[in-house]
């Protein structure tokens, strides 16, 4: 992984909200040579409009993003991070292949029922949590960790435990 671009797949079931937020935020912040993708095991077929609006409000482009299956990826990822939440008893898809895997659970804001303010709060919380985790990831000594898969996995797992508000 050291001498080639690094591809990170953010994976969930529907690929309409959390994984797309992760892909867009990562690509917005990532250094050259790093690229995030997102996909789902059962893609919804469209991006959640609230997720798209939130990204646009934060100045993050969604050009070219769409809800897709993991079978439609144009590259094999190096790292797969699942972002399914546990509050609704979701089952995360399991990506099989020779990749570093981690889980960064995020409750699905698209399932929140309530006032517009409550829904906005849920989306904002998911955004802030994902962004904090991605910023922690990008602050790691990546060149060093890419040569040590076990250390990279341990670092990703530690980041997945972050629950910032």
TrEMBL record:
SUPFAM superfamilies: Phosphotyrosine protein phosphatases I. Residues 6-140 form the Phosphotyrosine protein phosphatase I domain. Pfam families: LMWPc. It is an enzyme of class 1 (oxidoreductase). It comes from the Bacteria. The keyword Transcription regulation does not apply. One of its GO terms (molecular function) is arsenate reductase (thioredoxin) activity. CDD domains: LMWP_ArsC (cd16345). Keywords: Arsenical resistance, Oxidoreductase. The keyword Lyase does not apply. This is Arsenate reductase ArsC. It comes from Duganella zoogloeoides. The lineage of its organism: Bacteria, Pseudomonadati, Pseudomonadota, Betaproteobacteria, Burkholderiales.
């Amino acid at each position: 992984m050291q001498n080639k671009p690094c591809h990170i797949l953010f994976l969930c079931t529907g690929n309409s909200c959390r994984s797309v937020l992760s892909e867009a935020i990562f690509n917005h912040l990532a250094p050259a040579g790093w690229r995030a993708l997102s996909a789902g095991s059962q893609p919804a077929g469209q991006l959640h409009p609230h997720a798209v609006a939130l990204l646009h409000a934060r100045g993050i482009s969604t050009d070219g993003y769409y809800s897709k299956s993991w079978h439609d990826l144009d590259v094999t990822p190096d790292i797969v991070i699942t972002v399914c939440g546990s509050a609704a008893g979701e089952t995360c898809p399991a990506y099989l292949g020779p990749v570093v895997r981690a889980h960064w659970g995020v409750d699905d804001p698209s399932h929140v029922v309530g006032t517009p303010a409550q829904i906005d709060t849920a989306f904002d919380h998911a955004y802030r949590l994902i962004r904090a985790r991605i910023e922690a990831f990008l602050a790691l000594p990546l060149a060093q960790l890419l040569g040590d898969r076990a250390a990279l996995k341990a670092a990703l797992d530690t980041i997945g435990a972050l629950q910032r508000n």
